[in-house]
Amino acid sequence: MYKAYGWRGRPEELLALAVGPDLTYVHVQRCHGTSCNNGSFAEVPRGKPNGKRCYTCRETGAGECNRRQLQSMRCTGAMDQCVKVQSTDKNNPRTLLCGCGTPNLCHPWQPLARLLLPSGHKIYCCSESLCNRAAPRWDPLPTLLLPLTLLLLLGAVWN
């Protein structure tokens, strides 16, 4: 739980991310006056299914976010965005996690998202069901073999 005293922003915000059975959230309730944040926050319920389905995974190094191993999950409550978090390593971009999230988690100016997600990673959000599939890794071999195969076929035809 994080409590602070402040004036800026909306009076109440919810940022939530569900990855499989795990739910992580930041529930902000801003108040004014001395000692206004003495109370405790109520636990945020998951809510009822909202009709959205998203892919879910949490990469631990064992290939959980591999396209062939992805599972899907039913999104609930206000979590109506499919979310994908990817590394920003240009030499080895990879999906780190996928799940369902609230729309305000997806705003690039949302500083509270750093409390839920690893810093220095790219967050992708989409609103269609199952739109957050991990990107396939680019395999250069087929791209290189195609011109070579065409050359061999043309060479065989001309001989």
UniProtKB/TrEMBL annotation:
Start and end residues of each UPAR/Ly6 domain: 53-141
Membrane-spanning ranges: 141-158
InterPro entries noted in UniProt: LY6_UPA_recep-like, Snake_toxin-like_sf
Keywords, alphabetical: Membrane, Transmembrane, Transmembrane helix
GO BP term, example: cell differentiation
Annotated organism of origin: Alligator mississippiensis
Entry protein name: UPAR/Ly6 domain-containing protein
Domain of life: Eukaryota
